[in-house]
Amino acid sequence: MVSSDVLLAGLRAAGEETRLRILALLSEGELSVSDLTDILGQSQPRISRHLKLLTEAGLVRRSREGAWAFFRLDETGAGGAFAASLAAWLDPRDPVLAADRERLSAVRMSRAEAAQGYFASVARDWDRLRSLHVPDEAVEAAVEAAAREGARGAFLDLGTGTGRMLERIAPTFGRAIGVDANHAMLAVARANLEKAGLSRVELRQGDIYALPFTRGSFDLVVVHQVLHFLDDPGRAVREAAAMLSPGGRLIVVDFAPHEMEFLRAEHAHRRLGFSKAQISGWFSEAGLNCDLAEEIKSAGGVSAELTVMLWRGQDRRKPAEQSLRQSSLEVA
């Protein structure tokens, strides 16, 4: 249900051909101003004016990624739900909309090729590092298993990289967001997620020490192979924990302590692994109980040069529903 003010503002903003076409395109997923100018064949200033009106009406949400601006339907508010309904009512066989979707496919293909070109340039280093530890499949399976418990409302992936954790976990959550500091890696993640049919997953360029989200907004936060790149990993753990809702869970995956000094020079590692005491200590300082600390092993049990560890911490506050239920029991 929406208020009359929201409905009237939405109708005024959407009641123009180009803006209606923009809403139809954004219902397919997040797009940049450049994407929309290529698809619609209109100038950047004109597209920007249309987007400004749609944003002010609460139908569309804007986010920055370096010098780029990305737009998506504002799924967090009533305006976005109204915009999604409008897009759903449109006839997909309409010649104009069908042509827009064809150009959208071409834009996505071009974007994917550029992203994979970047990834190919760093793949050799990635392959060398991956050869030192258990297969990625074993790590991903362990994270999935650790993420099965708890509420399934919102999921945050910090240092999302190629978006692989989002591919594995996002489909089971109502909302999923990936954050990375590297614009080129976000391009890779965006292409991978679109290929996997997960175009509604959100991607944001951001600072892991100063996340642009309301605190207490996520039921699950994952920090996968990120802490060893940071100068202050403890601070990053505290910031990640602050994003958790009461009873929410934080999963950290990283290396156990090791002595491979070449990783500092060749792979920009700042820390050579973390002990169980370090991570559990940071969890405790952040208000989390560490309920899982395990070594991730391959299916065949073959040991690797680098040991990959998984830690899981749970926010000590009780979820609202649980607290209310407990209060009612105490009163009874």
From TrEMBL:
The keyword Transcription does not apply. Signal peptide: none annotated. GO terms for molecular function: DNA-binding transcription factor activity; S-adenosylmethionine-dependent methyltransferase activity. Coiled coil: none annotated. Keywords: Methyltransferase, Transferase. One of its GO terms (biological process) is methylation. Residues 1-93 form the HTH arsR-type domain. Pfam families: HTH_5, Methyltransf_11. InterPro entries: ArsR-like_HTH (IPR011991), Diverse_substrate_MTase (IPR051052), HTH_ArsR_DNA-bd_dom (IPR001845), Methyltransf_11 (IPR013216), SAM-dependent_MTases_sf (IPR029063), WH-like_DNA-bd_sf (IPR036388), WH_DNA-bd_sf (IPR036390). Belongs to the methyltransferase superfamily. This is ArsR family transcriptional regulator. It comes from Bosea vaviloviae.
